[in-house]
Write a structure and sequence with these properties.
Chain A is mainly β and 113 residues long. Chain A has strands at residues 3-7, 10-12, 18-25, 34-40, 44-51, 58-60, 68-73, 78-83, 92-98, 102-103, 107-111. In chain A, a hairpin with a 6-residue loop joins strand 5 and strand 6.
Chain lengths: 113, 107
């Protein structure tokens, strides 16, 4: 059974940093490109970032470029998202996904002063 | 960026009905289109990828078609558990983009 289990979300103040993790199992993680997608009530689903299977290529939405860093550890079957300089606009549920077929259950990130 | 226009934004139907949702891409994306179902408070669930391939475990009442710029999701014989929000997504090129969603409600 495929499982993508996100963790690391929480409540923090604008300007802060957070690292999300996604533990994968049930499929060949090391040969899969992996992504982060976020969802807010007002903006719907928004792609955030993708990393290639080896980690050699990364892609970012303009809204997070320069602030977020995607990475992976294939030895641990784990995907990461380091988020810095967070703003209220980053408040969302963050999903780990193997686009287009598998999604995690999401982790909520809330920015509030 | 590739824009995805999904219609309708909401749809009211009855149990047993057949419904169709469409997505139009602003440029050709071959068959790199996926459909998802989402229920309130839950994660998206993959239904179809590559425009027409049913994700494992998804009932055959769901079907997808299209290529290039125009795509459709058809749900036949609606059951109460099918009432949800449906999204399409193109994964032809970055940034990956989504349709705005179609909320399917019970009439």
């Amino acid at each position: 059974e495929v499982q993508l289990l996100e963790s690391g979300g929480g409540l923090l103040q604008p300007g802060g940093s957070l690292r999300l993790s996604c533990a994968a199992s049930g499929f060949s993680f090391s040969i899969s490109a992996m992504s982060w997608v976020r969802q807010t009530p007002g903006k719907g689903l928004e792609w955030v970032s993708t990393i290639s299977d080896t980690g050699g290529s990364t892609y970012y939405a303009d809204s997070v470029k320069g602030r977020f860093t995607i990475s992976r550890d294939n030895s641990k079957n784990t995907l990461y998202l380091q988020m810095n300089s967070l703003t209220a606009d980053d408040t969302a549920v963050y999903y780990c996904a193997r686009v287009p077929t598998y999604w995690g259950q999401g982790t909520l990130v809330t920015l509030s002063s | 960026d590739i824009q995805i226009t999904q219609s309708p934004s909401s749809l009211s139907a009855s149990v047993g009905d057949r419904v169709t949702i469409t997505c139009r891409a602003s440029q050709r994306i071959s068959n790199y289109l996926a459909w998802f179902q989402q229920k309130p408070g839950k994660a998206p669930k993959s239904l179809i990828y590559a425009a027409s391939i049913l994700q494992s475990g998804v009932p055959s009442k769901f079907s997808g078609s299209g290529s290039g710029t125009d795509f459709t999701l058809t749900i036949s014989s609606l059951q109460p558990e099918d009432f949800a929000t449906y999204y399409c997504q193109q994964y032809d090129s970055y940034p990956l983009t989504f349709g705005q969603g179609t909320k399917l409600e019970i009439k």
